[in-house]
Write a structure and sequence with these properties.
By secondary structure, the protein is of the alpha/beta class. The chain is built from 16 helices and 17 strands.
Length: about 450
Amino acid sequence: MRERKEKAESAAAGASRRSIGVGVIGLGTVGASTVRVLLEHQLEINRRLGCKLELRALCSRRIEQLDLSWLRRRLKDVKITPDWRAVAGDPGVDVVVELVGNLDTARAIAMAALTGGKHLVTANKQLVAEHGLELVEQSRRAAAGLGIEACVAGGTPVLHAIREGLAGEHFTAVLGILNGTTNYILTEMEERGCSFAQALSEAQERGYAEPDPTADVEGHDARYKIAILAMLCFGAAVPVAEVPAEGIRAIDPVDFAYAHRLNRTIRLIAAAERAKGGRLRVSVRPMMIPRSGLLAGVRGAINGVLLVGDKGGNTMITGRGAGGEPTAVAVLSDVIEIARDILSGAAGATPLGYTAWHAARLARLGDHVAPFYLRLVVRDRPGIIARVSGILARHRINIDAVLQEPGQPKHALPFVLTLESARQEQVTRAVREIARLGVMAQPPLVMPFFE
């Protein structure tokens, strides 16, 4: 009876509120977009909530360098400060929105907000991937809401779909194109035949890629996201540092020519799937995927997530995964969901989908069995294929086919071997030996075929 009375009192207090205060920390691309979208959608948001969602505090360490005249004209009473502690501790702020880039600072903000009883929304994928369970536990202790929707796939509500719409499913795998920058680069290379360097430069000009694109093109960004997806799909805490990640720098336009001959295309695939013995196989790497498959249709700076269920089959979710405004919509959706919980007196959703956790046991990627694509670029000499075949045979790897595009230069001649199913470890050892041959003009490129 006492618990029911407390809930009723909480709901009554929430229903009587006239406004809910929001503080935004970080005014980069996403932070500025979040503020603008909130102001532009203010009336619609208020109609949905039945009370006013008010922007009460803003923080940026570069506050003196920003032109905020547009904001000051709209909001005369908003607190603007370079000190995030002034926002996290503001008694008028109910929901803290953390949108800074640095991991240590983001974690400090998150813990200070939750410890102080504030609700928290974050878009920091590294923070959630590496410290998600810590945040969940702290939010439980503080009875505070925690929103993380913007951490994966930007404005595409994939986390909500897993956590709510598919909560009754038993997932066998989750696979995704989780980085809009790399997907833009690969589709431009495929459609126009341009080089990796040219496509990357254009991605930077369009704002899809950072001046330092390492996190994107080396697969690190997608690694954080697949770790989060694995947490939601399997209830297992994935150690991010143990997830193997390969990038796309070695992909060449000629690889798409060969891929098309095989009725395939190339995408950077982040994957988590159940393996033998209750283990999870998690990886990020370029793969040869069927052109008729669902993920092949994800083009440009779009994200796509394929959820494979035991009972419901395949569910595909696509949408804009990058950019200030799509991500701002996801951030504000979390804020609105938390505001509804405040008004109703509800405890809020479990942001990572589970209340009981176990440590993920990761399967060795070397034990994965698949057919492979092997592209070699050589200084043309007689007997090269025989030498390569001999190395593969010593490692018990069978060749399925040999492909060679015509008209290629003899000093850097590309050709492809498709390999029958073999263990990744066998293929890796064989390719290392092939790479030491004196005729190699470039390092070999190996990719698994994905069905």
